[in-house]
Write a structure and sequence with these properties.
With 548 residues, this protein is of the alpha/beta class. Strand 20 and strand 21 form a beta hairpin.
Length: 548
Amino acid sequence: MHDDLIARAKTWLAEDPDTETRDELAELIDAGDTKELSARFSGTLQFGTAGLRGELGAGPMRMNRSVVIRAAAGLAAYLKKNGTPHGDDDAGLVVIGYDARHKSADFARDTAAVMTGAGLRAAVLPRPLPTPVLAFAIRHLGAVAGVEVTASHNPPRDNGYKVYLGDGSQIVPPADAEIAAEIDAIASLHDVPRPDAGWQTLDDAVLDAYLARTDAVLDAGSPRTARTVYTAMHGVGRDVLLAAFARAGFPEPELVAEQADPDPDFPTVAFPNPEEPGAMDLAFARARATDPDLVIANDPDADRCAVAVRDGGDWRMLRGDEVGALLAAHLVRRGARGTFAESIVSSSLLGRIAEKAGLPYEETLTGFKWIARVEGLRYGYEEALGYCVDPEGVRDKDGITAALLITELASVLKEEGRTLPDLLDDLAVEHGLHATDQLSVRVEDLSLIADAMRRLREQPPTELAGLAVTRAEDLSRGTDRLPPTDGLRYTLDGARVIVRPSGTEPKLKCYLEVVVPVASPAGLPAARARATELLASVKRDLSAAAGI
């Protein structure tokens, strides 16, 4: 076992094109660190929810140039096998974007080299830019595929590799498995041609086209008066968001200076995710000093948008479900037509808003790779701060255009002497108070997640918080509307719970929703108190049932 492990590590070392990870692996081999080597060589990083994501480092279970070259070669083989040309002599184009994380630029260049070596055309965005610019560029340039090198809001030590096909949406089955099979078929990196040149580095024309498209998000002549504080969370959103806001005629956002510049070490936050405790502290401090109408944050690759509002004497983050409902209500008021869609883990309030407006409504599995594929999509969102407000431009979540639209809504309300929380109150009175929360457990040992799922499957709860479970669904079997996925859904009398392993992090996620009727605005405080009590009880009982 030991000799086999060392032999596999040495074989990997001989092919590794990166001096940094070569040195790292050589040290582990020389030290005979079998524990660490076993962790690095216990398998391969799985090509899953749209691509790859993992910790940087040497070996097949880490993100590194060797893994990326294999992934790119597998994608190229898949594209060629499935037919890529747009014309008789025109090889398909693959457009590549990247964020400002460690190794992102290297991974983007390697991908371009592999695509070129495979006989495809490759074009790399001019510098680190938001993921939605890449998603836009795929369709704008008529590409057959796109790659974004990003780990989104993961910790600093991580990076990732997100794959889109020519429709501008992230990959879904069976493409993911077929690409994974092509990756597995690569015997040696020496078999992968990687020329030193031959690909194109794009200029700012594609970014200018994206920014011109953002104009379509807003109503002509709508008020543009709301003042914002903005944080890029050490990511790549700042320049593009500022340019979009300037084009739209909004007041220039007040920047959180400490988090404005791209920094792959994310020095001011434990996790560069606006949803994580403490991540918004600096933004709130800036808001207290400048008294804006709202606070906006992007995650590091700017495909997510967080919003905070004044709440009494201080500031609070709106939940993704609250922003999702606000944007939906705004679009309905503007006369939007088309299908409204969300993933199953998001609030059922969207369905009620769509039904009242006479609009089609769809639920999908978790992830924008599913939401973006809804036929006739006009608006889609997911509770994890992801919003697709311009599906004809970007068939993915887009934190820049979402920021524009929520700021337009805040401006409209400001002109009426109202605020975003006022509109949330209106929606609660009209449709019932939809309150959501999440029980999220991060683990070191992934078997704990499997154990919890097995426990719930073998002994599903019959009641939570004193509410009877009226329906228990094992989503791994699929439903009449949804393909199979590893998840559980419990419908209760006035509540809903969904339990699933995260697709991108070592977490078990439980999504909770309670719906409390509200007869009038006067009943809102009591309804909120009841909802808070119910959510706490559901969380406690579910935790006990799952053994977490």
